[in-house]
Design a protein that fits this description.
The protein is α+β, with helices and mostly antiparallel strands. 34% of the residues lie in helices and 33% in strands. α1 (19-36) packs across α2 (42-52).
């Protein structure tokens, strides 16, 4: 399913065969920081990935026929919950994430639902979320909860 036309970004449901790509994605994005903290454990990460990704519900993000990331959005009665969005490092900083988030925010507006997410405080994407209209609505020592209200976008 095409989610954005320019640049062309397609989504397809995660299948069992995608877990090798998804593990490589996690390894690329999470391993350096986790190793620096002495917390990288490939087996634990693989188990966490299996517990987090929902085949048939979560989506592989593709551009030009190449898998470039993963997206998980759950529609709840009172909100859209952006459970995760991750793109390969070489696909970051090129407007792809902004385009995907714009499509999700538009979906929230059409449904008159806010879009909610949780993000680590130290994640550089926090600035992107704020630029797109997300506001901090909760926090703890490690994470921020952010919401973009449908009527304020």
């Amino acid at each position: 399913m095409r989610i954005v036309d320019d640049p062309p970004i397609d989504l397809r449901p995660v299948a069992e065969a995608d877990f090798a790509f998804l593990f490589r994605l996690q390894e690329t994005l999470r391993r350096p920081a986790m190793e620096a903290a002495g917390r990288w454990d490939a087996g634990r990460e693989a188990a966490r990935l299996r517990a987090t990704i929902r085949p048939g519900h979560d989506q592989i993000v593709a551009s030009g026929g190449r898998a470039i990331g993963v997206l998980g959005v759950t529609r709840e009665p009172h909100r859209l919950w952006l459970r995760h969005i991750q793109l390969l490092s070489d696909c970051q900083g090129r407007g792809l994430g902004t385009a995907i988030l714009g499509a999700i925010l538009a979906q929230g507006q059409r449904a008159a639902l806010p879009v909610f997410l949780r993000v680590r405080r130290d994640n550089p994407a926090v600035r992107l979320y704020q630029r797109l209209g997300f506001r901090i609505t909760g926090e703890d020592d490690a994470k921020l909860e952010m919401t973009a209200e449908a009527d304020k976008l």
